[in-house]
Amino acid sequence: MSYEDVLLAVRRISKFVIQTPVITSTTVNKITGREIFFKCENLQRTGSFKIRGALNSMISLKENQSLRGVTTHSSGNHGIAVAYAAKLNHLPCCVVLPKTTAEFKVKEIKSSGAEIVFCEPTQLARYVYCRRYRYCTLDVS
User: Fold this and answer.
1) Does the annotation count 50 as an active-site position?
2) What is the arithmetic mean of pLDDT over 12-16?
3) Largest alpha-carbon pair distance within the chain?
4) To the nearest whole number, what is the mean pLDDT of the chain?
5) At what angle do helices 103-111 and 77-88 cross, to 10 degrees?
6) Which of 131, 125, 72 is nearest to 81 (CA)?
7) pLDDT tens profile 116-134
8) Would you call 66 a catalytic residue per the annotation?
9) Which is the catalytic residue, given 50, 74, 105, 112?
10) Of these residues, 60, 75, 99, 112, which one is catalytic?
């Protein structure tokens, strides 16, 4: 990935994300003996930095291919970000979640209008359910 790719990503997502602050902590700096910087991505609408990647991927796919929907698996923050990015891009979304996912994360994903499919909490189950419920929606013709 080049610097130009990063700048293009910034332009793609800038109208959707919050420009979050970078802060330091005197206490942490004293403990570590270094100046430590914290990027406050918890202030994003989805509560994490993951919205940046989800939006950039979705928008770039829409620019280059016919995207009819998205499917992902997650146990939380990634699913929240993908569901929110799909909502912003007016795309249907299916999120495969382990049945052990925290209820507040399930509610966040549902609030973006995503379809939720629960599975066993294993990587294999997530993969199988993603394949079964996928929108498989990249039209390469």
Assistant:
1) yes
2) 96
3) 58
4) 91
5) 10
6) 72
7) 999 999 999 999 998 888 7
8) no
9) 50
10) 75
